[in-house]
Amino acid sequence: AQSVTQLDSHVSVSEGTPVLLRCNYSSSYSPSLFWYVQHPNKGLQLLLKYTSAATLVKGINGFEAEFKKSETSFHLTKPSAHMSDAAEYFCVVRMDSSYKLIFGSGTRLLVRP
Amino acid sequence: DTGVSQDPRHKITKRGQNVTFRCDPISEHNRLYWYRQTLGQGPEFLTYFQNEAQLEKSRLLSDRFSAERPKGSFSTLEIQRTEQGDSAMYLCASSVPQGVDGNTIYFGEGSWLTVV
């Protein structure tokens, strides 16, 4: 069965410093992996997706993630945090043969001025 | 393309009342999903439609919940005899199976339900 573990429930960074949000997945098959962002009282916006092409995936707003099969990880990074990045981030896995998304419990990113 | 649209955005209802939420997917997206998100948690899958056919229902979807997609376009999610535990955000999403954007699932902004 697939599952996703987001290793930090909260991450706090200063504006202009790098962001690292950690995600480990468990899947018996070749997974599709996603990062979604949710701003307060809003729906989910897709940041980026990995679907077995390049292992380094670039997304919107300067975010990127690297798929590491040996570590079963899909960590999200950004070189320089902006105040507008403050939100909840969800790591998500889906088996290629399925249509259901399995969400992690989320990481709340706080950006200090 | 206006994205996935959900209505109403907020609903407060008394326990025991019925509520219905509507979702309009992105045009030509034949797959439609409902998820539920409670405070502090990630969304959980409820049900999935391909065109008008409901292909899967989660065990989270009790008998009080029913979802329809009668013409393969918009969908409704009805909750009968609401309970306080039904308070959550109900998210609708849609996708297409093929193409450059294949299998990318797009979410609406959700419908908040508060049962008092």
Largest beta-sheet details of chain B: 7 strands, mixed
Radius of gyration of chain B in whole Å, from Cα?
A: 14 Å
Rounded to the nearest angstrom, the radius of gyration of chain A is: 13 Å
| Shape verdict of chain A | globular
Spans of chain B of at least 5 consecutive residues whose pLDDT stays below 50 are: none
H/E topology pattern of chain A: EEEEEEEEEEEE
The total count of helices of chain B amounts to: 0
Mean pLDDT of chain A: 91
Q: Provide the low-confidence segments of chain A as ranges.
A: none
N-to-C order of helices and strands of chain B: EEEEEEEEEEE
Secondary structure layout:
The complex is a heterodimer of chains A (113) and B (116).
Chain A: E1 3-6, E2 10-14, E3 19-21, E4 23-26, E5 31-38, E6 44-50, E7 56-58, E8 64-68, E9 73-78, E10 87-95, E11 102-103, E12 107-112
Parallel strand pairs in A: 2-12
Antiparallel strand pairs in A: 1-4, 3-9, 5-6, 5-10, 7-8, 8-9, 10-11, 10-12
Chain B: E1 5-7, E2 10-13, E3 19-24, E4 31-37, E5 44-50, E6 53-57, E7 65-68, E8 75-79, E9 88-95, E10 106-107, E11 111-115
Parallel strand pairs in B: 2-11
Antiparallel strand pairs in B: 1-3, 3-8, 4-5, 4-9, 5-6, 7-8, 9-10, 9-11
Supply the key terms.
heterodimer, A: 113 residues, mainly beta, four-stranded antiparallel beta sheet, 12 strands, globular, B: 116 residues, seven-stranded mixed beta sheet, 0% helix
Outline:
The complex is a heterodimer of chains A (113) and B (116). By secondary structure, chain A is mainly β.
Q: How would you describe this structure to a colleague?
A:
The complex is a heterodimer of chains A (113) and B (116). With 113 residues, chain A is an all-beta fold. Chain A has strands at 3-6, 10-14, 19-21, 23-26, 31-38, 44-50, 56-58, 64-68, 73-78, 87-95, 102-103, 107-112. In chain A, the strands form three sheets. In chain A, strands 2, 5, 6, 10, 11 and 12 form a six-stranded mixed beta sheet that branches. In chain A, strands 3-9-8-7 form a four-stranded antiparallel beta sheet, with no helix packed on it. In chain A, a hairpin with a 6-residue loop joins strand 10 (87-95) and strand 11. Chain A is globular and about 45 Å long. Chain A starts with a strand and ends with a strand. With 116 residues, chain B is mostly beta strands. Chain B is 0% helix and 48% strand. In chain B, strands 2, 4, 5, 6, 9, 10 and 11 form a seven-stranded mixed beta sheet that branches. In chain B, a hairpin with a 2-residue loop joins strand 5 (44-50) and strand 6 (53-57). Chain B is globular, with a radius of gyration of 14 Å. The mean pLDDT of chain B is 91. The A-B interface holds A 32, 36, 41-46, 49, 51, 90, 94, 99-106 and B 4, 31, 33, 35, 40-45, 48, 56, 91, 93, 95, 103-110, 112.
